[in-house]
Design brief:
Subcellular location: Cellular thylakoid membrane; Membrane
Family: Belongs to the ATPase delta chain family.
Order of helices and strands: HHHHHHEHEEEH
Number of strands: 4
Largest sheet: 4 strands, mixed
CATH class of the largest domain: Mainly Alpha
Keywords: ATP synthesis, CF(1), Hydrogen ion transport, Ion transport, Membrane, Thylakoid, Transport
InterPro entries: ATP_synth_OSCP/delta_N_sf, ATPase_OSCP/d_CS, ATPase_OSCP/dsu
Helix content: 55-70%
GO molecular function, one term: proton-transporting ATP synthase activity, rotational mechanism
Length: 181
């Protein structure tokens, strides 16, 4: 994220968090923001529409109204409209991600990004959650999973700047390095 984007994203995310805390809506906003971020990630068309400076603000607002409907708290919807009015809607993804960072801090939660060769079962996710809790002393763990068949098996766990490579590919690479010595 560029410095300029950071100067925009952080204050808006903080303001949204303050609003959410004052109304006891931190988790509700978190869930709604996760849904919005997922929508933006899965629809390049929507992202391009919102980011396009040529499209009139009232058109962007109309689309956001239609998308959010009754699924989004009116306060969060008003926040989205404010972003359009201020020409900041193109920072929605960054603001949403930063809000989730603030929410995790508030809840003493860490984000574990897990890459695996195959989809994880619930039992495997629970085991990894416990391992990450032990590793970080966090109260809870939020898991984000990605599939990468090239790993062959096992997982790679990334928590902040720490990376634990327990993948079969990583183990084979380490064996190869030992053999090459």
């Amino acid at each position: 994220m560029s410095a300029i984007a950071g100067e925009i994203v952080e204050p808006y995310a903080s303001a949204l968090m303050s609003l959410a805390q004052s109304r006891n809506l931190t988790e509700e906003f978190g869930n709604e923001i996760r849904s919005l971020l997922e929508l933006l990630e899965n629809s390049a068309e929507l992202k391009n529409f919102l980011d396009n400076p040529v499209i009139k603000p009232q058109d962007k607002k109309a689309v956001l109204q239609r998308i959010t409907g009754d699924q989004v708290n009116p306060l969060l919807r008003n926040f989205l409209m404010l972003l359009v009015d201020r020409g900041r809607i193109l920072f929605l993804q960054g603001i949403g991600q930063q809000y989730l960072v603030l929410l995790r801090k508030l809840n003493q939660t860490v984000l574990a990004e897990i890459t695996s060769a195959h989809p994880l079962t619930e039992a495997q996710q629970n085991t990894l959650t416990e391992k990450v809790k032990a590793m970080t002393n966090a109260r809870s763990v939020e898991i984000s999973t990605t599939l990468d068949p090239d790993l062959l098996g096992g997982v790679i766990i990334k928590v902040g700047s720490r990376v634990v490579d327990a993948s079969l590919r990583g183990q084979l690479r380490r064996i190869g390095m030992k053999l090459a010595q």
